[in-house]
Write a structure and sequence with these properties.
Helices cover 42% and strands 24% of the residues. The protein is of the alpha/beta class. It folds into three domains: 105 residues, PAS domain (Beta-Lactamase, 2-Layer Sandwich); 228 residues, Histidine kinase-like ATPase, C-terminal domain (Heat Shock Protein 90, 2-Layer Sandwich); 115 residues, Rossmann fold, CATH 3.40.50. The strands form five sheets. A six-stranded antiparallel beta sheet has the order 4-3-8-7-6-5, sandwiched between helices. Strand 3 and strand 4 form a beta hairpin. It is elongated.
Length: 539
């Protein structure tokens, strides 16, 4: 039924009526009401216009893709964000475009898009696209297929959302959580270093006054062992400060957990917490030691806080479980309230800090980040807890899914080969004690050593004389060591260069090698390692 005053649309057709001789004797005119069809067409047109407006004005990157994978259309945001012209994108294969500016899929781009076109399923996939000028953009992508009435795929609509700023904020939160966790251990770590330094000072002073060669040797042995202990603590701490991408290597999870326990031992002891270690042999896995150190530190810190102020027992276990490595942290603390136990792996869910109405500091990000790390290795993290009875966290890491694609070759440390000739060595380091000790050490082996406490002065010395080997620090006040290496290489491509540095970051080592360093040694190092490096580069 139509309402009064409503406009209606009609479609008229006229059909002639003929007699037996074929003459038109009448005309039958049929009027068909097409108001509903007209309304449907108008609605469809309006819908298309709305879609086109949204398509063109959206801040997200929109693509229309054919079943064969060709870009049929894209909005202006794609062109503006990526810096391509419409002609450079429309009509080309999505696979080709992806090869031009896509990385970080984890899957082969072509195979991934073929699966999308077949299933129409892609939800919140995060990866990087690279613009024409080389900029990297983090995006979150969703894809929906378009079907005809028979269920055939007509094409796909792909939407990419720029999440670069969100990712930056997430990384800042991650770093904040890491630093907060390490900060809680500051007292115990300071206590450890003070003990080490006290031992070194006492034995050094005794060495100065003793005239007995045997006692002097014993003093020096204690000093060396104490220095190694300090170096171990520093190396265990440094991975927590890294904010870079994961650097995977073949790791013994048990040894990694032991190293984290070693730097938390004093803090837990001070809080009257007993540590029980139950470790069984497990295979090595391919992982980032910094990431798992953070997970272990979060588990230990949470257990400690749960047992405050009375103390208790923290049991740590590592054991094989079929194709998995099972890692357990079990405490005798206050437990987790039932109302939040099902949400503890969500961000900002915590019983600590302002969010948990507690004086114990906490951000509510530790378990959230730990869950993310474990999940990225195809693992699981589970919790069992009862209020006033304690909590047990179980981490399962699959072994077969975390091995390198090709077996790693274990490096074997070789004894240093004897250097037959006397070397002319230039030593550049702004730490005077290091220069003095290394000069005496190398000259005791018959080599001639020229030292400089400044990089620029070292460069001038190199220009005036000929050296077989250069030993250089990286961080110096007047010139960066990497810049010094570059300038030395401009003067002489054949001279051998060994970098000696306190930096542990892989990026620094890579930059030094790119600049022209033949070897990189991390301070502190034993004499044997220095001899081995020298013999390796000069023989």
């Amino acid at each position: 039924m139509w309402q009064s005053g409503e406009i209606m649309f009609w479609e008229n057709t006229a059909n002639p009526i003929r007699n037996a001789r074929g003459e038109i004797v009448a005309c039958l005119e049929i009027a068909r009401n097409i108001t509903e069809r007209k309304k449907a067409e108008d609605a469809l047109h309006e819908s298309e216009e709305k879609f086109r407006t949204a398509f063109e004005t959206s801040p997200d990157l929109f693509y229309r893709i054919s079943p064969e994978g060709k870009i049929l259309d894209c909005n202006q945001t794609v062109l503006k964000k990526l810096g391509y012209s419409e002609e450079e994108i429309v009509g080309r294969s999505i696979f080709e475009i992806c090869e031009l500016f896509t990385e970080g899929f984890g899957d082969d781009p072509k195979e991934l898009f073929q699966r999308i076109l077949k299933t129409g399923k892609l939800r919140n996939k995060e990866f990087k696209i690279i613009a024409k000028d080389g900029r990297k953009i983090d995006v979150e992508m969703n894809v929906n297929n378009i079907y005809d009435s028979k269920g055939n795929v007509l094409g796909s609509i792909a939407v990419q959302r720029d999440v670069t700023e969100r990712k930056k904020l997430q990384q800042q939160l991650v770093q904040t959580e890491k630093l907060a966790a390490v900060g809680t251990l500051a007292y115990g770590i300071a206590h450890e270093f003070n003990n080490i330094l006290a031992g070194i000072m006492a034995n050094a002073e005794l060495g100065l006054i003793t005239g007995d060669p045997k006692q002097l040797k014993e003093r020096f042995e204690i000093i060396v062992k104490s220095s190694e202990r300090g170096s171990s603590i520093a190396n265990n701490l440094l991975p927590f400060a890294r904010g870079k991408e994961a650097k995977k290597e073949l790791i013994d999870i048990t040894e990694l957990l032991k190293s984290v326990l070693s730097i938390t031992h004093r803090e837990l002891e001070k809080r009257n917490i007993q540590i029980i270690e139950e470790f069984k042999p497990v295979p090595k896995i391919y992982c980032d030691p910094g990431q798992f150190s953070e997970v272990f530190l979060n588990m230990i810190t949470n257990a400690r806080d749960a047992m405050l102020p009375k103390g208790g027992v923290l049991t740590t276990q590592v054991e094989p479980d079929g194709d998995n490595i099972r890692i357990i942290f079990k405490d005798t603390g206050c437990g987790i309230p039932e109302e939040i136990k099902g949400r503890i792996f969500e961000p900002f869910v915590t019983t600590k800090g302002a969010l948990g109405k507690s004086d114990i500091p906490g951000t509510g990000l530790g378990l959230f980040l730990s869950y993310g790390v474990v999940d990225s290795y195809k693992g699981k993290i589970e919790v069992e807890s009862k209020v006033s009875k304690g909590t047990k966290f179980t981490i399962l890491i699959p072994i077969s899914k975390n091995l390198p694609l090709q077996p790693l070759i274990e490096t074997r440390v070789e004894s240093p080969r004897e250097i037959q000739k006397r070397l002319k060595i230039l030593l550049v380091d702004d730490e005077k004690p290091i220069c003095i000790s290394l000069k005496e050490l190398l000259e005791s082996r018959g080599h001639h050593v020229t030292t400089s406490l400044k990089a620029k002065e070292g460069l001038e010395l190199f220009k005036k004389d000929r050296f077989d080997l250069v030993l250089s620090d990286i961080t110096m006040p007047d010139m960066d060591g990497i810049e010094l290496i570059k300038k030395i290489r401009e003067q002489d491509q054949k001279s051998k260069i060994i970098v000696i540095t306190g930096h542990i970051e892989k990026e620094k080592e890579e930059k030094a090698r790119e600049a022209g360093a033949d070897e990189v040694l991390i301070k502190p190092f034993k004499n044997e390692l220095l001899y081995q490096a020298i013999s390796k580069v000069v023989i």
